[in-house]
Amino acid sequence: MGFAEDVRLLPQRTMRTVLMSLSRRRSLARIAIRSPLTRPVVARFVAGETLAEALPAVSALQRAGLHSTVDVLGESVTSAADASAAVDRYLATLAALHGRGLDANVSVKLTHMGLDIGPDLCRDNVLRIVQAVRDVDGFMRIDMEDHARTDATLEIWRAAHEAYSGVGVVIQAALRRSSKDVDSIIASGGRVRLCKGAYDEPASVAYRTRRAVDANYARLMERLLLADVQPAIATHDPRLISRAIAIAEGNGIDRDRFEFQMLYGVRRDLQRALIDRGYAVRIYVPYGREWYPYFMRRLAERPANVAFMIRAIVKEEGRRMRGH
Length: 324
Ligand code: FDA
Description:
Elements: H1 3-8, H2 12-23, H3 26-34, H4 39-45, H5 51-63, E1 67-72, H6 80-99, E2 104-108, H7 119-135, E3 140-142, H8 150-163, E4 167-172, H9 178-187, E5 192-195, H10 210-227, E6 232-234, H11 238-250, E7 259-263, H12 268-276, E8 281-287, H13 292-301, H14 306-321
Parallel strand pairs: 1-2, 1-8, 2-3, 3-4, 4-5, 5-6, 6-7, 7-8
Helix pairs in contact: 2-13, 6-7, 7-8, 9-10, 10-11
The site of dihydroflavine-adenine dinucleotide has 22 residues, from strand 4, strand 7 and helix 13.
């Protein structure tokens, strides 16, 4: 039995922990990026490495009746210059989307904007993008990263939301604190994207079983739908999607009062089924060269892809060591 098969037999939680730890190992990125074998797997989840590659993907989604939110890939930047370059890429993205009449908003990670360098620098960078979003009457979503950054993210979201109401934030059902955070965001008129949470968090702050996360998701989703604050229900979980529809139908909540959101390349059948039923669906479209951590989180969510990926990387590394 090979390494890849051994890996497939690991318990899912262990696999997720391993993958999440690999997602922080940048040296692996170089191996993965070079491998032609990994590219088709990556291309399923990432719309391209450049804006020029991503724009046709957004157009195609729009033609199919899907909305988009575009993420310029990148996170954990360690220099002010890199953070500023990231802002410039967002400004170029907004200009291109608007210029082509594409109905897309943007999603931004605060560690891409320099959060780890300093909150003030990060806030200033975010506000530059907010200004550009406001100029086109658009919408911007602040993604949520690991629990160590939740407070800082919410604080910067508040500043951005005060500057322009078209800025929303993400809440993760996996975190125990999220119930309180949802209440306070609802009270301040903010818009929430609710997701399960993609980070491997400790039990002290997070629910660690699928059942507990799903139960919390259902509770928070119901609260957001009933509060009528234009929530984004971001999941591919058919049971939670059916539950959202049942809550909306049972409470006379119109289809234009919320939207479903899914990731580029994930459950395209479900995306189509929902728009066919008249629901709004927005696709999170990531593009850029810094796709490695994003991609690893996608693998961590679906162990079935992992064995294939590992085989490809090990093969490529073997070739490299033999000097090819
Ligand atoms: P779950 O993991 O239970 O999956 C349900 C089903 O969906 C699976 O059975 C499978 O069929 C399919 N599926 C899910 N993931 C897949 C994958 N990677 N490949 C193939 N099939 C897959 N997280 C976060 O921490 N911060 C954030 O800001 C965001 N932002 C965000 C935006 C949007 C639009 C979405 C949809 C998701 C996020 N996430 C996120 C990620 C989120 O937290 C979560 O990790 C993933 O959505 C997977 O969880 P599901 O809700 O889909 O359920």
